[in-house]
Design brief:
alpha+beta; Rossmann fold; Alpha-Beta Plaits; 2 domains; four-stranded antiparallel sheet; three-stranded parallel sheet
Length: 248
């Protein structure tokens, strides 16, 4: 692939280095970068002054992220999930048209993670353009209209998350007798498994679709007793591997 040597980056039709662009951008870094020794309100007031936002805007974003009752709490005393909410509120103070979120739910518990997802969905419904960098496939699937997978600095694929998940296939794991593993491995490969990993006394098999996995399972059952069956879709790391193999 040819290395780009020149070009122009535009944001909202303006050159990226145009200072006026900043007024339309909101950014949530991977690390919240809040002032931990002062209150939630102090953090937002400082950012609001930088952007020239009215004090009423602080009340609006605090309500949006459900932090109004915690406005006077010192940031260091908040959980990681609540700190992420404050960081999102800060990123929204200037009512950006383009919002960039870098790992928005990193280190966040399940409850707060879904709370943050709700905020992102509401912003998308409001017509905001949102760019999310994430290592979580379920997050990309839940929030994004389009997924771009980067590998070694290049675009490996660009498509709707539903299509990416569909193409990634599924993993089938069975617990069986060690004496039956070899025969089951042969049967799985004969019935569509693209990868088989023997982990005594378990057998992990990757199939291109859930349908082929179910068909293969029917072929494995007569070979010997199976004490447990687990099925899951491929994760993002496994999708990376599949895309790399596809490029070779």
């Amino acid at each position: 692939m040819r290395t780009l040597q020149s070009g122009q980056i535009e944001v909202l039709g303006r050159p990226h280095d145009d200072k006026s662009v900043r007024r339309h951008l909101g950014f949530l870094p991977q690390h919240t970068a809040l002032y931990s020794e002062v209150s939630v309100l102090d953090n937002l007031q400082f950012t609001a002054r930088l952007h020239g936002c009215p004090s009423s805007r602080i009340d609006e974003v605090l309500e949006l992220v459900d932090m109004t009752d915690r406005r006077t709490i010192i940031v260091a005393n908040l959980s990681g999930g609540l700190q992420r909410r404050v960081a999102i509120a800060r990123a929204l103070l200037n009512e950006p048209d383009v919002l960039i979120l870098d790992e928005p739910t990193l280190g966040v518990d399940s409850e707060n993670r879904h709370h943050i997802w709700q905020h992102v969905r509401s912003l998308r419904r409001a017509g905001k353009s949102i760019l999310i960098s994430t290592n979580y496939l379920d997050e990309a699937e839940a929030l994004c209209d389009e997924v771009v997978v980067l590998r070694a600095g290049h675009i490996a694929t660009r498509e709707a998350p539903r299509e990416l998940v569909r193409r990634s296939g599924c993993w089938l794991e069975v617990d069986c007798n060690e004496s039956d593993v070899a025969a089951m491995t042969r049967a799985a490969r004969a019935h569509g498994a693209v990868e088989v990993i023997e982990e005594m006394p378990s057998l992990r098999m990757h199939f291109p679709t859930t349908v082929t996995a179910q068909q293969a399972l029917r072929e494995l059952l007569p070979i010997g007793p199976i004490s447990a069956v687990r099925e899951r879709r491929a994760d993002l790391a496994e999708i990376f591997t599949q895309l790399a193999v596809g490029k070779e």
